Amino acid sequence: xxxxxxxxxxxxxxxxxxxxxKEGTAWRVREITSNDDWGQGxxxxxxxxxxxxxxxxxxxxxxxxxxxQEILLVVDPDQIRAGWGVLAQKLGPIGLAxxxxxxxxxxxxxxxxxxxxxxxxxxxxxxxxxELAPEQKVILQSFLSGIKLIEAPTSLLGVEGLMCAGxxxxxxxxxxVEIIAVDELQDQYPAIHAVGRAAEEAPxxxxxxxxxxxxxxxxxxxxxxxxxxxxxxxxxxxxxxLMRKDMGGAAFVLALASAIMARKLPVRLEVYVPAVxxxxxxxxxxxxxxxxxxxxxxxxxxxxxxxxxxxLADALALATEQExxxxxxxxxxxxxxxxxxxxxxxxxxxRDTETRNALLQVAEGVNDPLWPLPLxxxxxxxxxxxxxxxxxxxxxxAGGAIIAACFLSCFCGAADDxxxxxxxxxDHGDRPGRRKGGAMAxxxxxxxxxxxxxxxx
Length: 457
What we know:
With about 450 residues, the protein is α/β, with parallel strands linked by helices. Helix content is about 35%, strand content about 20%.
């Protein structure tokens, strides 16, 4: 409970690397591939010890060689992260040597943390050979803080808690942070207000700005639905259980902003997080309601459970009121994306062909899965309604992820370079080395792409 409570008060968020690092005796991890002759160079007593452990050289097998204090781990190059997660899950309280100067350090460190939610005296830990470089700390701080936010229950990280996380981040990097009381400016942010007005906590909009104004303007927009009941189109119980993760897009962009600011990318960064709870209560949005938006378009509510796109509409409209270089939104937007891609892979869509192709190339090199879906604007016809400018859902249930992107596109103005990620934000723990919990598939790929696009300061 203490671990979760620290999220609400900000302790450890953004400023600590959150790695289970200790000093002490360290066991070496020797990685081999499934194609290697793993017995080569081992003595007879070591081979006998591995045989006793039923080690057979398959991927994710590992053997413990006590005499030499060595762990023999079978892992292919594209599975290093998962392999270290397996070690975190299955080893006892021993220290594992990890070299921050190794090219795969971040993969190993993040993989180790992905295996277990909370480390204690019964868990293995890491012993760093040398001091972590500042940029390594930044990456780990940012990514692991984002995961921490996703996993926080709404009782401890509601709308105000999410705003607090954003303000803490801004203060750390001397950014300008504005928290807009949407309930007091309903005419300016009507869609955000309409979705959040029935909840106990009033809706808010976080705006963070950092960097020189003459640098390329990079806008990040993250969906911040701290809990999604579905509204009057109530979700069934099984679908509601994980809805604390519906602010995963907000966590993703805040974590990305943390890394961008710490790495001092030469951009004018602006982050927008519309934060609401989609609750049932007096004044709740109804199916069939006609809702105003900041962009001036009227939206008929076909389904109150398609609320994320509504709050994003106002935030995207605000972001595009000024000229920008690149617009990115990240949201746990559709179940259709999960049907198409599952939970391991984050689909994305882009208005710009060059951006779409460059991001895919980076993702394949980083081995952090992103995959493009077509932004088939003609599907916008599915949003037609005789009662308003558009409906918030399609008319037949098909192509839901693309149709949701088409809806968002209506609020992106003249932003030629717009990138939309439909995030799962959750790992079901059904793969080796991965625990059940928060996830941000594609985060490393997107950060690498932005570093490649804008360069270092």
